[in-house]
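Lab notebook, design round three. We kept the backbone fixed and only want residue identities now. Task for the bench partner: fill in a sequence for the structure below.
Input structure tokens:
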């Protein structure tokens, strides 16, 4: 009996001694393999991200040059900077383009958007309204969205205004590089959107593409629910 116990103990010890190096060897093999798999996964993810950004940037570039203006329920003007009650050159160009569309009777209503942006007295939407009235647009034909601090916020507020008024389509006025992302946001709310970029002087190619890339990243974040 004692001999059998001794043999059992010896066998257990032999197994323990032989298994321990196997575990260590398996661990040495497994860790590099895991690192390799993780590295490949990260590389594939990065390539997919870059590919997606390039694809969307190309779509943004194409959309930026197309004027889809046609009769709709409203003309929606996205805000831009204002200087103490006066529109910045960018905002003025957007408003002038909207004026042209309004006088062509493309839509009977205009919506101006944009919050204060740090100005205690004026909002982008309010400044837009004043500019339009000064250029012979009846005040009753203008609706102001004065709260939006970002494109997503302004789009959400304008979309809600349209929903409450039973309006289904709009001509979207903004800078060319801005149209694609804003259009997708409005379409997500079930609105028929016709992009109509304001006229602008051509920019150098790298700067233009940088705008497209920024917008594509912004669009991706919005689509993932990570912004506004």
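Proposed sequence:
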């Amino acid at each position: 009996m004692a001999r059998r116990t001794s043999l059992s103990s010896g066998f257990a010890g032999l197994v323990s001694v032989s298994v321990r190096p196997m575990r260590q060897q398996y661990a040495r093999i497994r860790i590099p393999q895991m690192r390799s798999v993780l590295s490949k996964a990260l590389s594939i993810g990065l390539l997919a991200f870059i590919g997606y950004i390039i694809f969307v940037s190309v779509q943004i570039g194409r959309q930026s040059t197309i004027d889809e203006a046609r009769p709709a329920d409203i003309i929606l003007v996205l805000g831009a900077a204002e200087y103490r009650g006066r529109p910045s050159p960018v905002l003025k160009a957007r408003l002038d383009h909207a004026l042209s569309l309004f006088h062509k009777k493309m839509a009977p209503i205009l919506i101006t958007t944009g919050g204060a942006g740090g100005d205690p007295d004026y909002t982008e939407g309010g400044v837009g309204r004043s500019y339009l009235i000064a250029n012979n647009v009846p005040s009753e034909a203008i609706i102001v969205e004065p709260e939006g601090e970002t494109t997503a916020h302004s789009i959400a507020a304008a979309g809600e205004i349209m929903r409450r008024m039973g309006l289904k389509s709009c001509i979207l006025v903004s800078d060319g590089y801005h149209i694609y992302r804003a259009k997708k946001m409005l379409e997500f709310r079930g609105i028929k959107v016709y992009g109509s970029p304001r006229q602008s002087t051509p920019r150098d190619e790298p700067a233009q593409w940088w705008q497209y890339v920024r917008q594509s990243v912004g669009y991706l974040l919005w689509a993932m629910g990570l912004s506004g």
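Keep this in mind before ordering anything: The domain at 74-223 is CATH 3.40.50.620 (Rossmann fold).
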